[in-house]
What does this fold into?
Amino acid sequence: MSVTDRLAEIVGQAYVSTDPDVLAGRSVDHTGRYRGRAGALVRPGSADEVAAVLGVCREAGAYVTVQGGRTSLVAGTVPEHDDVLLSTERLREIGDVDAAERRISVGAGVTLAQVQHAATEAGLVFGVDLAARDTATVGGMASTNAGGLRTVRYGNMGEQVIGLDVALPDGSVVHRHSRVRMDNTGYDLASLFVGAEGTLGVITALDLRLHPTPSHRATAVCGFADLDALVAAGRLFRDLDGIAALELIDARASMLTAEHAGVPAPVEGAWQLLVELAGDTDQTERLADAFEGVELCGEPAVGVDVGAQQRLWQVREAVAEVLGVYGPPLKFDVSLPLSAIPRFADDAAALVAEHAADAIPVLFGHIGEGNLHLNLVRCALDGDREHALYAAMMDLIAGHGGNVSSEHGVGTRKRDYVGMSRTDADIAAMRTVKAAFDPTGFLNPAVLFGA
It folds into this structure.
């Protein structure tokens, strides 16, 4: 019996496909820039089915690539070995919100937007927010330890995960749940799988922490003539009590959003900073006081009511909509010390001009954590030329004391550069953990280490 026949016995024939068109559509990354190849698609409907699929694939020597919402920006869901694509999209159960304990249990295939909606209906808030909220699944977000727009207040995805179910490569299932807030019994297995990018097991369900909804918000976008002044302001704002968001946007991004999304910047300046404070009392005066002594380029645009706040947030969120207007952008997700950001921005622009003169570097991101997204719009490089630019940019990031991977993970695009941010001993220890869970290396083989 073939592998696909055995998979069909587990999940049902309707949930296994070998159709070339289906597989081609599932073997391209979110940007459309990178393509792979797959031999079959399987969509299990439960943790036990996921485990059984892994058992069959392991026994047959078939590689498996795990897919959720397929919003990875480092080609983390692109197969390289005629893999079996294991989709978590049918794991969509949403439990009732426990308002007293502020938690919810959901399947790995539930989207971020669905979790946010459930939390809002209960008068609570989920701590992670992304532009891809309608597509990104919480299983994938946990696998990459995603950050996003609210990280400065609530932390990354790992801070929201308080329990999970994981199907292991050997075909067993780990259920790690606890109803108590403090559970220090044995190894912290949940944290081991968060950020592992699916290399150690397949997350099938999660218990997620929810938070009280602040009753007051105050939002502002302010302009700066130079990046040094913005970074100084960012260092001040990130330490404020009640900081809820701190987002950098450069003028090139603003021009793109104005031209292609009809969302112009509300302030002047080569750089813009979106600041939001949240709390149980009116934050407007505190926000105004925080601007005292900051080197602004003109007056900030302030939103106190919900409508005005949403209009200001459009400036930041529209960036994601327009990045592909000139074709698939070349993306770099980096983490840098705040003090290094201005010099990195200059050096990165010079490096891009050297390798791709027609490309437009667009810089934006979460300045509170030094987590920035550098996107090269109108970058037509491919093959060796793209690889040369990518390698040079990774070297530049490391040279500025940064980390080559931040909230997007390593995926396949950055696996050759892990050694720039981790020592040989670190990498050896990670490989030891990988070998303990997956000795044959069949699960997500292209991610993090490569086959």
Notes: The first strand starts at residue 16 and ends at 17. The mean pLDDT is 90.
